[in-house]
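testing teh design pipeline on a random one, pls ignore if ur not involved
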């Protein structure tokens, strides 16, 4: 009985050692300079895409607001009142 418990303990110890070594290698690979530079490049690409999207949204909203304001100013120059059609 003691021998069985001993060998079960050895097996569990070896299994835990294998898992720790495997996870350790994954962590080391994640933080190597190549992996860090790849993640940084992906972050920069993502930021660039978000900035591009924000710029497009700003441009379209600005153009719409500019056109509306221009129409208001032209109407006031012509002497038209809002809600009154000639």
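output:
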């Amino acid at each position: 009985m003691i021998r069985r418990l001993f060998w079960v303990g050895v097996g569990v110890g070896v299994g835990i050692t294998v898992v720790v070594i495997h996870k350790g290698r994954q962590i080391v690979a994640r933080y190597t300079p190549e992996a860090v530079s790849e993640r940084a490049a992906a972050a920069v690409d993502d930021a660039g895409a978000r900035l591009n999207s924000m710029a497009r949204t700003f441009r379209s909203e600005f153009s719409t607001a500019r056109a509306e304001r221009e129409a208001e100013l032209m109407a006031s120059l012509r002497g038209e009142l809002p809600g009154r059609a000639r």
